[in-house]
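Form 7-S
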Amino acid sequence: MNLLRILFLLSVLVAYSFGASSTMENLLFNGRWSHAGGVSRASAPAASITFNAKASKITFTVEGHSRWRLDRDGKQIDQFEIDAKESHTVKVNDDGAFHKYRLIKISESGVPEIKFYGVTVEGEFGDAPKPSSRRIEFIGDSFTVGYGCEGSSAEDAPEFEKTNASKSYAYLLASGFNADYQVNAFSGRGLVRNYDNMIPEWTMERLYDYTVMGSVTSYSKPERWDFGKFHPQVIVIFEGINDFQGNSPYADKRKFKKSYSNLLEKLRKAHPGVKFLLVSTKVWPNDDLAPTIKSIYDAEIAAGHKDLEYKHVLTTNVGLHGHPDTHSQEELANTLRPIIARLGRWLSR
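Output:
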């Protein structure tokens, strides 16, 4: 056996014994992430990291109170919670083949952001998964987050343990279409008015421009999102529940319509050729959302825009704090799926 062969075998043995650490070239990120100084920051629900590896153990190092789900070849194999900065190790069946792993941030509640320091495997990494030819974005609030969807009743708290973004209609649709995605949703926030007017200066109208929405008040100069990094072909907008629900006063309808129309124009300029699905639902006590969104849609059609569709949905809100449970989230995904397939021309998986 020649020297080069011996050195190669030793390098493989070292990799399996002591672990191989990920680099950015090994990983595919979905959701809005900020990468700087060897750390990746995010707050978006369902933000994820995907990689290929053959390994017997996988260790993730994360900081920030959060809950995570790990999939292998599309099937969940682990779920865990992180508190402060710590490492979590998962033992996996090393059958000598490469498998696709995806780590998904399923929580929203808790700290403003999480910090991801990397992945180590006892084994080896394969090439990073290739980006999908399909790209979709969701803009919304707690319904889109999957807030409280694992709750069995309105009072089945705490929300941190009952929220699961991987069971929201948004993630179900993105994964079902095998699409790269962003879920830009924030519980309690409206487009121009937040639920019960909480933190009135930080509505989605303003938050949407930032990379890590949850931590905008933690930095003197929070990072603005570069819209050139991700060009969705379809954008689902399910906004306005918090503008018109809770205790009054509610959003000014003229201001809401103007902001919504401005958002559509902004997205058209950022993503030429993009298609939109505008979604509304019933809200209490005045049920003002549906007619307001429908009027925006009608005005867009009258102005000659042919890049959008409208859908009114009804959900069974028997989860935590009157939110859709997992079954209702699945029904919502099934309702929107054929419309999105038509808009994106995604007629098959």
